[in-house]
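Consider this one:
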Amino acid sequence: MKIRIERDALADAVAWASRALGNPRTGGNPGIGIEATADRVVFVSYDRESSARAEFEAVVEEEGTCVVPGRLLGDITKTLPGAPVVLNTNGTSIEVECGRSAFSLPTINSGDFPKMSDVPAIIGTISGADLATAVAQVHVAAETNESLVNLTGIQMEFAKGVITLAATDRYRLALRDVSWSPSVTDPDTIALVPAAKLNDIAKGLADCATVEIAVANGGDSTLIGFTGNGRSIATSLLGYKFPPYRDTIPAPGNVVAYIETASLSAALKRVRLVLEDKDKSFVSISLSSDEVSLTAQGVASGVANEAIDATIDGELADGAEVEDPDAIVEEVPVARKAKGEEDEEDDEDLRTEDDVEADLDAILREKLTAAEESPLEEDEEDVVVDDKTDGMERLQPRRPDETQCTQCFLLVRNSAPGCPVEDDACPLFK
């Protein structure tokens, strides 16, 4: 095999294929396969859960295939000078030449190179920018604790004209509707995609005018695929059930405040300066006739207040300031990053007024209250619970006579007559 390819095209292709590089310590394949035919060259990689493929134009002097160490090739291509690159196989090695730089790398036995199952048929298309924005907005609410596997994903619900994305970490829920163009008559299907993987894919395809989405119509597939600008990637779906979040969303209130997104974001950054623990503290929100007030109180750092201009839709009681206890929200970072991940960009820039984040302290309250009101057995003793909420309307701590469901994660009284969400597959009431 001997090919000539532009340095930038080679770097982009290797970087894209590296998204599916496996870790040899966990049984993954560390190689990138290269296939040169006619005037095209394809770079592909597989691990146990994903596959990535990039196809670019190149001058092919000699057709052929080989497998090269992926991470080493990626490190080399990123540092090469801005000149055409020549890749030439020579027995059990591949020569990389660019300007006055030259490398000789060992090849990997192609017989050990894995392959994933075929990706299902394409069901529609979406703008790459729209997909990246929507995924970034819900990704911040996804769980990072791998012990709660079903909450580490983003649920994609495909319907006619709209894709609904949902993510939750039990304390907040993020929802986003984004327009798309289905290519099948009935696109009704649901896919639970690993949140970190989907966010990485969406960022990589953000520059694509059109991204093709492939998933089995009807939900029988274990894979979902995305293709744009000669790049494609497929990843395994999470084989778990996402919580029934629609049942927990409270009905709209009688009063709605419309606030400029940038003003709200800036005000939150300022008032949270007095909070000692910015990840576990609270900001109180109150409404008046033409503004929204934010209040944060630290244990020893003082108090911060700020008012923001707002348009109020609805009648406030007697025109007086009204504080909604359900408007007390947990202050959390706008973007959460995995350990060792460098700050590449601020996902906050992608947030718009369409972004919805809700505190599940309020969202789940109705379900928990219903479970607690189940009748007790006559001989059951009352359990005294220490209330440390200081009068604030918050979730109560777990009681000694409650069990957490491993499927929906709700707390259920041991004396409850049945599943509070009426799930026939509930493990507590089989």
